[in-house]
Amino acid sequence: MKHIFLLSVLLFYFNISFTQSPPVAGSSTNLCPFTSTFFTYTSATGCDASGWFCSGCSTNSTIDGGNQVKTTGTNSDGTVWAKVQWDNVSTGFVENVCGRLNVTIQSIEVPSISSNINALCGSGSIIFTATVLSTTNITGYSWTTIGSGLSLDNSGTTTTGNTLTLTYSNWTPSNSSVQVGVGSRNSACGFVTEIRPLSSTIMTVVAGNTNNIPNSFTFSPTTLCSNPTMQVTNQPSGTSINWSSSNSSALNFTNASTGAASIVNNYNGGVSVTATISTACGSKTQSKDIWIGLPFLTGLTDNGNSFLPSTVCAGSTDQFQTYLDAAYPTGVYSNIAWTGSNVSISSYGAPTASVYYNGTIGSYASVGATVTNLCGTWSGNATWIGQIVDCGGGGDQNSEIYPNPSDKYVTIKTQSFSRSESTVSISIVNEQDQTMYRNTVIGGTEVNVQVNDWQKGTYYLKMSDGSKDKKERLIINH
Predict the structure, then answer these.
(1) Are the C-beta atoms of 289 and 246 separated by less than 8 Å?
(2) Radius of gyration for the chain, computed over Cα atoms and rounded to the nearest angstrom
(3) Claim: this prediction has a pTM higher than 0.90
């Protein structure tokens, strides 16, 4: 019975406490954070004046026992009250034993800050940007600087937008750093978020260096067809450029600072151009090879051999390569076109083409190539002409190589190169142009080559003494 009586008393007490209307009274919507005026909240007679608690109240208030309540007291009529200051949060509440009042607050987000450059050299301007995820309740931004060297020195300014442009002059590596801070503004409440050193709302701008100059930069144009103006792609702001040419007799810069240049005497070929990008605090230099005028070819090779054959085997395949002038820059646009007669050409892309000899025995095959760049097409033509012969062979001792077909060994004869002291280069390649055998002998010598471990298929014997060359097809048939 005693326990039942105590429970009844407690239920009666809490029923009185929490059924007052309202249990806590005061402003509860669109409250301003950090205002100079404190908000007052009241509760009915009988509530404990020292039992107030606040969530979302400013810690800048005098803290009463850790409950973030400024002051508390009791009115003459017995009602109790508390004064609080709200923090920069979106919601909160104030409560005592009699009840709780939830509130909404016009909070604003603390911004982060960044700039378009972080190292100042010489004179110029710098743009600072304040960034927030949400602009709710934000009406502008307040800026400040700590230190000297920027036009806004030890003072503040306000902006409606989230950027601020400041100027600087005569910055060198000896300049000290400057801190720039920003806070979000809520004009309706007259409130600015706190700008704290070393927080996300402040950044340090250091004295100048060359960090804003890339270690590698791109020139344009890379092919010159007429008098050009050289440029560096995405030249950093606040920098200057000095241009120079490796061959002023080919390309002369008439204005080294703007990049204006002239081609001298219709020069055609390669030249190296150097750009030096400078700030008040240093410079970086880079050179690039460029091409002036039409491209041109230095010739053709057959399977990598510069001495082209005078005869080729009917039905065989070769790979021709063509080479631009050695000074032509790698990666600079050029397009190689292949032509020919009594051949079928499959281009593997410049500078290599696969050539199949489909002409009749005794006819002449030709392969040619020309090249085009942005200036036009080269009027010359790198050309080879050779006679198509029957390399199928008979396989007797009158052939250059016998037996043919073979399965164990072959004998190579060089009697056709028997002029005095002639040196004959011999090679045998497979259809993939892989060298299976290579040797150098005196003309008139016979050479035996074991082929028993070679794969079954078609191979090609090539012989040359520097003035004459021969080619014959070899069949391995195990």
Answers:
(1) no
(2) 45
(3) no
